[in-house]
């Protein structure tokens, strides 16, 4: 294994985030509203013959499942560390985001398939009924989105929001399709708008999926430079180099670091550790800090102290 080494700087921050009672209630209300209206949309979509409405109903049904998953993951993430899970269950939120992303990919594929079939075989659509239900659906989606935005920022919450905003786009598409069909009778607008919405959802979903996988693969957080952190630690007075440096995300808002610091004098370690924690916390937002002091002549591929 190649070892990366730095010299000169470190601290402690980012305690496990706490979820308020309001946040749990927000997931509950969002779930009830979304599931209830999915049934209404499905019935109206079947009666009116609108693919856009049926697609949005299917989307809202999976949204209900995603909101349930997100809410349960949020609740479980609050459980304290145990002998089997020393970091607790906070990473369940990342897993929930991953599963929700995969749900969304399945939805996009289903919408695209049905849209192509409907474009090739147009069917009559009751435009006015579609417009009415789509408008109500849009208002509900915006309300659910507002509820979710009031919670703490996390990958899990963002995954739920992608579902809800995808629903809002679906409602806009259905509303527009209903209006065009009512005014012109042009049926292809229904599947065409369904495809447009599916592509917009796909972009957001792929970005979310990439972030979730990056966290699960313990990648360095995107807003942190491994080299910058290593060199800051290496510039601490008394540190000659830093090696075996690793930075990763435990869960949303929780960043961890581990590293070996070579010292000139081991007796200076209490001061160096305190300074390192302060720098890591204040400058990089890293709160889970594990640093090992060493007095060694050499370490492979080391970053040497540079004084500025």
Overall description:
The protein is α+β, with helices and mostly antiparallel strands. It folds into two domains: 5-14 and 220-304, Alpha-Beta Plaits (2-Layer Sandwich); 21-216, Alpha-lytic protease prodomain-like (Up-down Bundle), CATH 1.20.1510. Helix content is 61%, strand content 11%. It is built from eight helices and five strands. It has helices spanning 21-48, 51-76, 92-120, 127-149, 155-184, 189-216, 226-234, 269-284, and strands at 5-6, 239-251, 254-263, 288-294, 303-304. Strands 1, 2, 3, 4 and 5 form a five-stranded mixed beta sheet that branches. β2 and β3 (254-263) form a beta hairpin. α3 runs parallel beside α5. It is elongated and about 80 Å long. The chain starts with a strand and ends with a strand.
Number of helices: 8
**Largest sheet, described in full?**
5 strands, mixed
The CATH architecture of the largest domain would be Up-down Bundle
In CATH's first tier, which class of the largest domain applies? Answer: Mainly Alpha
In terms of per-residue confidence, which ranges show pLDDT below 50 for 5 or more consecutive residues? Answer: 7-19
Mean pLDDT: 79
The count of DSSP E runs of length 2 or more, i.e. the number of strands, is: 5
β-strand percent reads 5-15%
What is the 3D form? elongated
Write down the CATH topology of the largest domain: Alpha-lytic protease prodomain-like
Question: Quick one: CATH superfamily of the largest domain?
Answer: Cation efflux protein transmembrane domain
